[in-house]
Amino acid sequence: MNSFHDLTVAELAQALKTKQMSAVEVATGFLARLGGNPHNAFLDIDSEVTLAQAQASDARLAAGTAGPLEGVPVGHKDVFVTRDFATTAGSKILTGYRSPFDATLVQKLGASASGGAGMVTVGKLNCDEFAMGSANENSAFGKVTNPWDKARVPGGSSGGSAAAVAARLVPAATGTDTGGSIRQPASFCGITGIKPTYGRASRYGMIAYASSLDQGGPMARTAEDCALLLSAMCGPDLDRDSTSLDVPAEDFTASLNNSIEGLRIGIPREFFGEGLHADVRAAVDGALREYEKLGAKLVPISLPRTELSIPVYYIIAPAEASSNLSRFDGVKFGHRAKDYTDLVDMYKKTRAEGFGNEVKRRIMTGAYVLSHGYYDAYYLQAQKIRRMIADDFQNAFKECDVIAGPVAPSVAWKFGENAGDPVADYLADIFTLPASLAGLPGMSVPAGFGAGNMPVGLQLIGNYFKEAQLLNAAHRLQQATDFHLRKPEGI
Amino acid sequence: MSLTPQDIARIANLARLELQPEESERMLTQINGFFGIVQAMQAVDTTGIEPMAHPVAAIQDITLRLRPDVASEPKQRELNQRSAPAVERGLFLVPKVIE
What we know:
The complex is a heterodimer of chains A (491) and B (99). Chain A has 491 residues and is of the alpha/beta class. In chain A, 35% of the residues lie in helices and 12% in strands. Chain A has a domain of 258 residues: Amidase signature (AS) domain (Amidase signature (AS) enzymes, Alpha-Beta Complex), CATH 3.90.1300. In chain A, the strands form two sheets. Chain A has an eight-stranded mixed beta sheet. Chain A has a three-stranded mixed beta sheet with strand order 1-3-2. In chain A, 63% of the residues are buried. Chain B has a two-stranded antiparallel sheet with strand order 1-2. Chain B has a domain of 45 residues: Histone, subunit A. Chain B is built from three helices and two strands.
C-alpha cells in the first residue's frame, strides 16, 4: 500500500472506514509533514485543534455514525472564516482575527456531528491578499513556492491550497475562484480543481472580494476526490447567502464512470491564438487526442469576446472589491494604526498600513469606476458586455456539451518575471476570466508537462449546473492518463 | 483617457487610503497602464443590452432574496468583539467625533 500521504481522499476515507488506520494516526502523520511549513503553504496550524477533531472522528467511526469523508484531512484557503483557526485572507489588516463562526463550506466539510462530511481541518492555507492575484506573490505573509520548482510561482490566488495538495501536505483543500483562482493554481501545480456554477456553493463566511464572481470549490489530486468534496459543498444556503441558488445538492460521484462516447467538446479558436505558448498547446492537444480516443468529438466553436473579458473583469471585480473592503476600517476587527489625529485619519492610516499594493490598486480602480460621472461608462458598460459574454457561451453550447482549452497561456512563471507590471498578470488570466464572468462551472485537469517539466492543465468548462458532466469527462481522462499521479521530485 | 494626479488624490480620499507621494505616482502610472486595455471595452455597442449582476441570469430569472427581518444569530458580544482593536464595556471605541 502507498504511504498515507500518497492516498487519495477516496482511499483515505475507505481506509478509515475499514479501520486500517485511525483518524488520529492520519492527522498525526500529516501534521508531521507540515513541520517547518514547506512551501510556506500554511498560515495557521494548530495541532491541538486538529487532533481533537480527529479524536471526534474516531469516536464517530467507532460508533457507526461517521460522515462520508470522516477523518480525512483537509486544508482551508484562508479566505474561509474559521472559529478554531486564525483567518487573515493573506492580509496584514486581519492579523490575529478570530471569526466567531465557521463559513458554511467549512461547516459542510467539517464535523459530522453538525451535519458535515466529517473532514478534519489541518490548517489554513496561504493565498493572495483577499484573493487578489495570479501568483500568490501578493500575500502579506510571504510567497508560496511551487513544489515542482521552488523558483516558480504556484499560481494564485489559491496558491497555498494548490501547493499543499501537490506536495502531499493535505489530500484535499478548499479554494475560491473569482477569475480563475482555483483553475490556474491547479494547472500550475499539476492537481485537479473545480469551480462550480456561481451560486451553487454558499459564499457565507467566504471573505468577499467580488461578490458577483466569488465561488468556492475543491482542489485535490483526482477528479473523483473533487467530486467527493464538491458533493458535500454544494447546496442551497438561502438564509445566509442572498445569491445562493435553490439547487439541490448532488452526488457528483454517481456519473464519474459514464461513457463519454459521442461527447461533443467545443474548441474555442480564441483560446488557441498566438498568445498561447507552444509547450502548453502541445500538452492540451495531447489531452484532446486522448478524448478523441475515448470517443469524444471535437467541435470548433467561437467565443468572440474572449479578449474583452480582461477589461470587463478588471472593472467589475475591483468595483465590487472597493465596496466589500470598506468594512476594513480599524474599528470592529483587525489592525488599527497607532498614531492618528481624528477618525478619518485613523481610517486612512489603518488602511494604508493594512493593505498591500495590489489591494490598494484595485480599491482605487474600483472607487474610480464607481465614482460620479464614470459609473455608466465603466461599471455599467462592463456589466452589459458581461451579459454578451454569457450569451456567447449559450450560443456555443448549442454546438457542444463541454468546452476545452488551456487554463493559462504558459506554465508557472518564475518569481519576479512579471514584477512591477500588474497588467502582465492580468493578461495571463485571459482563458479563465470568460467562464468566471458567465458564472459557469470550470475545472483544471492535469494534461501533461511543458517548459521546465512544469505541469500543464486542461481547462474544461460546462454549462450551468453541469458539474457532474465535467467531473465525468475529467475522470475518464484520468482513467486513460497518469499525469495526475505524477509527483514533484523529492515528495 | 488618462487620470491626473488630482484624480488619484480625490479617489484616495474617497477610498480612505493615505498614499505616500511616491505611492501616488506609481499608482497613477499603473492605473493609467490598466486603462490602456479598457479602451477596447468603450468601442463595444451595447445598445439595448441589460447589465448583468447575477451570471445565472443568462438562462433564468434571478431574483435576489430578502430574508425576514428577524434576529437569527445568537447573542455573542464577547466573541464578536474579541478581534476588535479597542473595546470598553462592550462598546467599540473610536476617536472622538463630536466636540
